[in-house]
Amino acid sequence: MSIVLTHHAYGKSQIRLTRVTRHADRHDVKELCVGVQLEGDFAASYLAGDNRDIVATDSMKNIVYVLAKKHGIGTIESFGETVARYFVQTYAQVRSATIDLVEHSWQRLVVDGRDHPHAFVGGAGDKRTAIVTLTRQGIRVESGLDGLSLLKTTDSAFTGFVRDAYTTLPETGDRIFATLLSARWLWGRTPADWDHAYHAIRRALVETFARHHSLSFQQTIYAMGTAALETCSEIEQITLTMPNKHHLLVNLTPFGLDNHNEVFVATDEPHGVISATLARSPG
Question: Which residue, 83, 152, 212, 218, has most beta carbons within 10 Å?
Answer without folding.
Answer: 83
